[in-house]
Fold these 3 entries.
Entry 1:
Amino acid sequence: MAYSDIAFDLNDNLAVVTLNRPDKLNSTTRNMHAELRSAFDELEAAGARAVLLTGAGRAFCAGQDLADLRMDGPDEIVELLENDFNPLVSRIRNLPMPVVCAVNGVAAGAGANLALACDIVFAARSASFLQAFARIGLIPDAGGTWTLPRQVGEARAKGMAMLAEPVAAETALEWGLIWQVCDDDSLIQEATTVASRLAKQPTKAFALIKQSINASSSHGLDVHLAIEADLQAQAAASHDYNEGVTAFLEKRKPVFKGK
């Protein structure tokens, strides 16, 4: 597929997906969502083992492009969520490989929650996270009201949602929203290095780690221990587990295949 609102590259098992509407701060449109769905289909079919998601220009994503709305009432908002944003967030969280996000500038509205749906989030020192929804009379969507209280607690989640003020990258790190802050000029290099490293590691185990952690908030300890045991059995049946143990015993570097 030819892409216009995103850029897509797949090299050495690492897929790089770049939101590519820099003149509009990479705000999302229906076409961008269609291209993102196609890109994720393509990278899965090609056997990618890690994904790097970032934005072009001076922003990561400013959320929904309001100029792309028909402004014909709440049914359109529900349609956008059910057809575009919700499936995208679920796809990222359930993708059977690590998704690294490099937040290169402002991440606002659904753009912030898109970044926070990723597994490992790097942010440029100049980046910020803004739950902008209250500014136009809406609530955080794209998973915002699910993700925020789990990551920063109820008090900070409500403050972010109601005050709609930007949270600087350093504060986001302090609060546990993101993994690491980088100097602006080294962000992409550092995030790419980590994503490339992950793509060569036991990505079958990474998929099971995602599955287990995603499920953890929905169960009590005893139920989750059983889930862990089942997922660990799947990991122990993998090529990568056998290779990891064999390489350890043979005192050599393992060669993982993500299988």
Entry 2:
Amino acid sequence: MPGNIRGILWLSIGAFLFSITDVIVKQLGRKFDPTELALFRYGIGMIILAPIFIKMGLAELKTKRIGMHILRMSLAMIAQLGIFVTVINMPLADATAIFFSKPLFTTVVAVILIGEIVNGRRWIATIVGFIGVVIMIRPGAETINPIALIGVGSALAFATANVLIRVLSKTEPPNRILFYYHIGGILVFTGPAIWSWTTPIGIEWGMLISIAVLTTIGMTCFVRAFSAGEANAVGPIEYVRLIYAALFGYFLFSEVPSIWTGVGAALIVASAIYIARDEARKGAAPT
């Protein structure tokens, strides 16, 4: 098959796995504290990646930029916890749409932190996307859902963490960044998870483990997708997660997306797709 078709298939599989992960998190969130879910996410993830870290050895895992690692992983861990809280307490379609605002925040954060140059059309797309976020949160309503604000904050934190990866990647290989990210997650969430611990029963063990397993496989699918196909052709397929989220939310949790979710999500997705295509064109331009 052509590379773009293979990339689209890989990304479709990855998006589906991430959606299944959200369903499992939402189901488990009725009983387990988000910090316990996070501990399983990082602990099992560390076990899965352990062979890679062992092969690297202490010499390759050592870093001279521990402060930057701590800052980056702190933001990412806050974002991960916020995502769990949002998925558990909001309709899946709403939570998924809010998380897709991450590219919008990435544009702004990259300008502030690393001085990235952004053209006028991309700024317009970013503003349109933020209008979509505002529509979903509806600040003019009688009450603002605080969980929605947590979701937006999580998207901002993840966007900032991703920009810091660009800074770290000048000296740090990806697997070293992953190592400190997982170690940090285990250290941070062990205490709170023990404090709020609920012992899993039967299939719950498998469901908790699957959060990390499915996330790892989903990330692998995304890597394969962008390795096989062009980013501007493959990338927009990720937004099929909104369809999965709406279907799972409706059939499994009796969630019916509001008209505000549809309008806001459409603006967010349209602007994010434009930003992705603009990034792809910039990457393909001769230097």
Entry 3:
Amino acid sequence: MKQFAQRIIRTYFTASNKPDTWLLSIVVCLVVSGLLIFLSASLGLLARDGASFGNIATTRLLATILGAGVAYVASVFHYKHLRRYTLAILLAAIVLTALVFIPGIGQEHGGARRWISLFGFWFQPAEFLKIAFVIYTAAFFATVKDKVQTFTYGLLPLFALLGIAGFLLLLQPDTDTFVVLFMAMFAIFLAAGGRLRHIGLMLLVGVIAISLLIASKPYLMNRVTTFLNPAADPQGTGWQVQQSLIAIGSGGLTGKGFGQSVQKFSYLPEPIGDSIFAVAGEEFGFIGTVTLILLFLALLLRGLRIASRAPDLFSGLLSIGIVILIGASAFMNIASMLAIIPLSGLTLAFVSHGGTSLVITLFEAGILLNISRYQKS
């Protein structure tokens, strides 16, 4: 096993085109720190009925191993091959996501149908849907090139793609995932050279659409009212935000230490899910959380640097889309735990529970590493 691992590493780094060392180091740091934070947060499940630390820890370790393998394959499998199969990838993602609405296959949890169960495994197809739409959008605008400034080849196709994605995600409902996907596709459109007038129109439509969603969805309205006045219902809708702020605040400068969080045992909802940043704040303090934020910021900046040096338009647009997918979801999760934005149901990339999310995120990181092999000097 040791010799096999050494052979893989030797092959990886002695190839004619080496991956970006800084990006690889950042991803490894995020995976390792995410695993440690997750294992510590999982100890909080011991105080909850029906929860098994052993099963969850084993699942996470397997997802990490699988994700690392997927990232490796994605980093050596030339990114240009993705462009050949963009439509097939998109159609497969749409079909998989549509399966959540089929009884017996789609699984409901917490009032949302976001999972499918196949052969005893649970899978969240929306994670695959995000990267599939990003790949297709990047390939489409790379193909039309300067025509992106026209309504027919620019704004109209973008609205059509967002309409399909929105229908599948909002029906579940999964508003947060749609917002992240919207941001990624908007960034691709902007980088592809979309007209300022079309960009302004898109932003206006986005604001109107979000306002209508908030007005029509009680759970979204509750998030907004809680954000505006967190103390209005501290035992109800404001509970998670209040407990998150208590956990982060009690961590102080250096934190209570690994495994020493109190809030994760019975106070924080979903301590291994969207509340995991609060656990990290309590255990590792200001220094630990700032370090984690800086790692995500470094990933964002390094990814944008790779995009600026990409060998072709497709890889450049794809890099931007991937960076926004990972960065936007991470910073939205952190910001919601700090009460900077309304509470979101997004998980923290590389850290939170969710095997599908971790594997797909590592797949996206692998694509970035692949593109970095061919970046211009």
